[in-house]
Structure formats: C-alpha cells, structure tokens
Amino acid sequence: MRDDTMKIAIIGGGISGLTLAWYLQKDGVAYDLFEADARPGGNLRSWATPEGFLLETGPNSLQLSPELEELLADLGLTDQIQEAAAVSQQRYVLRDGRYQIMPGSPPSLLTNGFFSLKAKWQLLKEFRQPAAPIDENETVAHFFRRRFGSEIVDYAVNPFMAGIYAGDPEQLLINKTFKQLPALEQQYGSVLRGLMKSGRGAGRRRIIALKNGIQTITDTLAARLTSYQPDTTVTAISRAADGTYQLELKGPQGLEAAPGYTHLALALPAYAAAPLLEPLFPKAAAALASVYYPPMTAVFSAYDRAAVAHPLDGFGALHPKVEGTYAAGSVWTSSIYPNRVPAGQVLFTTFVGGAQYEDAACQPEEAQKAAVHAELSKFYGITGAPRWQGRYAWPRSIPQFDARIVDAHRAADALDADHIVAVANWRVGVSVPDCIRQARMRAGLLAAEK
How far apart are CA 134 and CA 146, in angstroms? Predict the structure, then answer.
C-alpha cells in the first residue's frame, strides 16, 4: 500500500540537494528544499569577469559519467556540453624543477622516461606480489608504497591527491578513497592485473564543461523545481511525538515553522549539519563536526601568450610535495577551453592550500597573488607582470576521507533508521558525478518507500 503521507525536507541546495529534489519530483514524492543562500549551487559557481574571462570557482571540468549525461539530457542541456580540447589529455608533473609529461596508462608507465628504472622494476614486481590482509585503516600512501614503491607515491600519488582532493595521501584512507583497488588486490593478487582484466584501466571518460559555465546545471535544476525555497535557513530541527520532524526556518518572511516531515535529507557539509543534529543526536553531531575541511584558494593569473615560454600543451601541471613548491599546481584553463579567455592571452588557475599546504592558503590575498606569479614565472618562463589576477577562497574546501570520516559515515548509517539521510559529498565521494549518482540512488530508495 502506498504511503501518501511521506514528505521530505531537503536541507541544502548544492548539486546533491538539487539532484535529489529533481528525481523525487519526477517520482511524485512530496518534498521541500531549503537553501540558505539566495543562489543555488553551493560550490558550483561560474564567474564571468568584466575583463572577458569565464572562470569556475568550483570544479573546472567534469567527467561525463552516465548519470551526469542522463541528467544533462533530462534538463535539456546536452547542447551546452563543451568538450575539453584534445591537448588536455596530457598531464604534467613537476620533477627535478621542470615539468614532465606524466604517463597516462599502465603500459606507458614502463615506456615513458618519467620514472626511474628502479620504479619501473617495482611496477613489474607488483604482478608477482601477493595480496596483503585487508586493513580498514590503511592509508593511500601506505597502500601504493607497499605495492609500487616510494617513487610512485612521491611523484604520482602525492600530486594527484593534492591536486584533485586537496588531500594528503599519508592521511587519506584507501578504503574510503579508492576502495576498488584493495578489492582488485584481493581478487586478482595484483592491482595491475586486476585493472587489466576488469577493464578499469582502459581510457578516461570524456572531460567536459558547459558553454555558459558549470553553474548552468544547478541554475537549471533550481528553476525546474516546484518546491525550492532559496534564502531560507534551517535554524533548528525538532521531533514530534508521532516521529515527524519540524524545522525552524529563517527566511524572507522572518521566523516560521515547517512541520510534518517524515524524512530529512542533509545535503550539507558535515560541519553545517552537525549543529542541527546536536540537540537530537549528539553523538552523530560530534562525529560530523570532526570531519576535516582544509582551506583552499584558487588564484587566476592571465598573461599575454607571447610572454609565456612553455607550450601549455596539456591539462595542467601538478606539484609533488617533495619539490617544495608554494602551490599544489595549476590548471591551464586557456588550453582546455580557449574561448573562455580574451584572444591572445593565457590563463592559469593555480591552487594554493589543501591539507599539505594549509599555511599558504591562509595568507593575505596580495601575498598569495605575488607568490603565485613568482612561481609561475619561474617554471613557465614568463616575462613581465600578469595582465590580470583574481582570487577565490574556500575557508573549508573538500572533505577529507581520512580517519575522521569513519565515525561520520557510521553516524550517517545509524541516522538512516531515524529517516535522516545524508546526501552530500562527504558521504560517498567528492566529485560532481559522485554526488549526482548518490542523490539519484537515494531518490529511488525513498520513492520505493512511498
């Protein structure tokens, strides 16, 4: 028998909350979505500057997963897809003070000159190395070090984790970040053999943006929702005798109450969800409050093309921690999407901060801009000052899937029994496709209860 009394309060209007609401709406499930900001999208922000730049202050590009592709088609945005330039398939890493192309596939790891003979020999030995017992607390660095050696960790794993996750592989857990790799080790005895037999190492997904900015996705979702309430902050949650939830709201009309919700969906950062949960679920609140979000800053620097000696024939360049740099690396925005910058100029999006560079992220804006310009000039052979610089700072950026996330995930599992679901990037994955996949799955499960 269908339960027509089900009504869900979604707290948070980022990509997760908006996607959850979209699929609930399609399934005929009643919901209200509350977003504290006047604009939707959370960290998905596109910034068109007066100088003629189209910038992303959230993710610069997206992997086109099946779920993302279907959502874009659903929203009528397929014609907005902008493919990354073919040159972007090349990725550079700083080694011995100069940029070198990082091998892009397991076979090229052996044929490319990036790694030493010793590192290549350790890669070959990985095929014969037996699987180790499962360790739920094993870090990413420990896993790769025991399977592939320290050089792979220093010059491949470390810069990748800093550049993509703003993280430190010495702290991030392999079981929470790349859980498929320990599974391949257990099944095949060798990670590389498992990648080859499962096909998981074959090629990359298409890399895209949207012509008018990635924020187009969240703007379109919000416009299509029938029960979206922006500029409305949930200040408290209480529970009635019948088990339903009541929200205290602060919105354009002042303070008000919204009663009668059978389910809550927390589409919020863990640190924002924690104080709402504290009166009813103090242990869960404490677990969520402990999740670590390091600070991060994006510094945008534009130069005349003629002033930059490097060919910029790739996606960008990452900096291993062992190289002792100021920034974690740069995306070559003008190489990936040439129409996003004025003619005759190039644009670097440089990332300062994260778990390994936290002190630099907290410096004043002008100091960061100056340090980034100095480092870009050194490594790219740049002459002269920038034509333009901008900055966007996240005091709390990407949730870290380290030891502190374990209790938060356990708390989220326990909250399911009280009809509270966590739908956010700290729950199952930090990428936009991860968030869309999770939100769609949760919408299906909720609809099945109706």
Answer: 13
